[in-house]
Specification:
The protein contains 4 helices and 10 strands, in the order αβββββαββαββαβ. The chain is an alpha+beta fold and about 240 residues long. The protein has a 6-stranded mixed beta barrel. A 4-stranded antiparallel beta sheet has the order 8-9-7-10. The longest helix is centred in the first third of the chain and has 18 residues.
């Protein structure tokens, strides 16, 4: 009986070996690189942000002013203008109270739509409401000779380089008697701190009383309003002082 059991165990063992499958792992060929492990695809680098647009350069025409234009010829023709050059009324030049010399402006006649370009060489006009005095040639270009005055807009189109620091004052009067001018100057200096007499080359023999020495036109306009309120004087003008 024991021999029979032993024989059955042997038969079962050999039967299992006959049905078992074996696999063989072939070695890689010499020198073959091992296959890298799969990795996630690299993300595309972000596109650079577009450059910020450059700021627009400031334009010369940022200054404009509306008011009345007039013109002047004789007796100023042939005399030194406020900038020192000889005024030629047949050139495209003009007078303005506060713009730097050698500034170019375009003058639009709002009544007839004509315009002209002029260079500032002089100071004026010293009449309330008027903002620019044109030469005879410039006045002809916009048909201003006949009516004498016109409603205009002026726009700056070119400013000179190396403009010295500006000083602005308030003209409160013009006198042919220098003693009267000096008396008013003393009164203004006592009340407002600074006042001077200015005799302009284009108008010799006329003494102008200038009050204050302000760094900006706005500050000078504030002083002008104060003087008008204190004295009742209405003919005051803010003027650029071109030399100390």
């Amino acid at each position: 009986m024991r021999n029979v059991l032993a024989l059955l165990v042997t038969i079962l063992f050999l039967s299992g070996c006959a049905h078992k499958k074996y696999t063989h792992q072939l070695p890689s060929p010499p020198g073959a690189p091992s296959k890298p492990a799969a990795s996630a695809p690299a993300s595309r680098p972000a596109a650079p942000a577009p450059p910020a647009p450059a700021a627009a350069p400031p334009t010369a025409s940022s200054y404009s002013e509306d008011g009345i234009a007039s013109w002047y010829g004789h007796p100023y023709h042939g005399r030194p203008a406020a900038d020192g050059e000889i005024y030629d009324m047949e050139q495209m030049v003009a007078a303005h109270r506060t713009l730097p010399f050698d500034t170019w402006v375009r003058v639009y006649d709002l009544d007839n739509n004509k315009n002209v370009e002029v260079r500032i060489i002089d100071r004026g006009p010293f009449v309330d409401g008027r903002i620019i005095d044109l030469s005879h040639a410039a006045a002809q270009a916009i048909a201003l000779i006949g009516p004498g005055i016109a409603n205009v807009r002026i726009e700056v189109i070119h400013t000179p380089d190396n403009v010295p620091p500006a000083v602005f004052a308030v003209q409160i009067g013009a006198f042919r008697d220098p003693q009267n001018a000096e008396r008013v100057r003393v009164q203004m200096a006592a009340r407002y701190g600074t006042a001077r007499l200015v005799e302009r080359p284009e108008n010799p023999g006329v003494w102008r009383v200038m009050v204050g020495a302000e760094a900006t036109p706005d500050a000078a306009r504030a002083l002008s309003s104060r003087i008008r309120k204190d004295s009742g004087e209405r003919k005051t003008f803010v003027v650029r002082l071109d030399s100390e």
